Structure formats: structure tokens, C-alpha cells
Amino acid sequence: MSTEPDLVERARRGDPAAWRELYESLSGRLLLWLRARPSGDSAADPEDLVMETWLVAADRIADFAGDADAFAGWLFGIARNQAANARRRSQRRATDPVDVTEHDIWGAQEDTDVAGEDWVRRTLATLPPRQGEVLSLMEVVGLDVAGTAEALGMSATAVRVNRHRGLARLRKQGAMDRNDTQSVTSSPSAIR
């Protein structure tokens, strides 16, 4: 993302180029994070949640105070709330929607993509929720400590502690060795 100091201000004024730059730099990571999170609702399509997140961000940009780096944490916080809203809607529906991944009419993704996403989802699900959320934002998506803290509404110290404990727990469980940790932390696209 551009380090241009007025990028968010330009977006606030409605500049399409600024919105495009923000969207292009963050949407892929946002989608990756939402796919890695256990949603509890197969009807909550991650692509739909990404679009809902951007709509809320566009509607509430006037309330945001910060630069382009802080915008990422704010946006991921909105996405987290959108995912929680979708989960609550699903629980109120009291239905069991068809899992579209089981009935993919457009053709299956490559096996490695699906296997990688499933592995990350299953691995993160073995952790306490906060540790899983911190690891998915930092290690899978690539947000920094400040962005993760903003997205999850917690202090930077709590983010660091949860990251450390989550990685330690995964190593203890044998889910990761040092090479796996390095591959996930060095490349957010490692599971794509």
C-alpha cells in the first residue's frame, strides 16, 4: 500500500483512485483471512463478507482517524464484526445451509489450494479463539502488531502474548515445526 500520507484523506473525500489503491492492497489479504477463520456458517461466503466490509468502510470512513497503515487494522476489525453478524444471522435462521464447497458447480479449486486452506483452518481451530485470530491475522495475512491490535480490539502487548502462546501451543501439538512456521510467516500466500 502507498505510504502516501493523504491516501485515506483522499478516500474520505471520495477519490476513486484512493479507494482503488486501498482495495487492491487489502482485499486479497482480507479474503485470505476470512477464508482461514472458522465461520460456523457455510452460507457466509468470504467473498460476500469482503464486499460487505468494504461497504461499511465506505459508509463509515468519516469516523476513521488515522493513516493508511492504521486503516488496515480498522478494516479487519470491520470484517471481524461482519463475520460475527453473519454467524448470528445463521444461528437465528436455525437452518443448515448447503455447504457450497461440497457442491461446486463451477469446478473445484486446485487440490493444493483446498488442502492448504483446510489445513490452516483446522490448525487454527485447535487453538483458543484469541490465539487463532491473532495468528491468522499476523502469520497468514501479514498484519503487524498494531494492525492486529486494532482489528481485534486488544492491546499490542496482548497481541504479542497471544501470538507467542499460539505458536508455542502449535509446536507442542506437533502441528508445526520451525520450517512450517517460517513458511507461513514469510509468505502470506503460502496457503493459497
TrEMBL record:
Signal peptide: none annotated. Coiled coil: none annotated. GO terms for biological process: DNA-templated transcription initiation. InterPro entries: RNA_pol_sigma-70-like (IPR039425), RNA_pol_sigma-70_dom (IPR014284), RNA_pol_sigma70_r2 (IPR007627), RNA_pol_sigma70_r4_t2 (IPR013249), RNA_pol_sigma_r2 (IPR013325), RNA_pol_sigma_r3/r4-like (IPR013324), WH-like_DNA-bd_sf (IPR036388). It holds the Pfam family Sigma70_r4_2. Residues 119-170 form the RNA polymerase sigma factor 70 region 4 type domain. This is RNA polymerase sigma-70 factor (ECF subfamily). GO terms for molecular function: DNA binding; sigma factor activity. Belongs to the sigma-70 factor family. ECF subfamily. It comes from Nocardioides ginsengisegetis. The keyword Transcription applies. Keywords: DNA-binding, Sigma factor, Transcription, Transcription regulation. The lineage of its organism: Bacteria, Bacillati, Actinomycetota, Actinomycetes, Propionibacteriales.
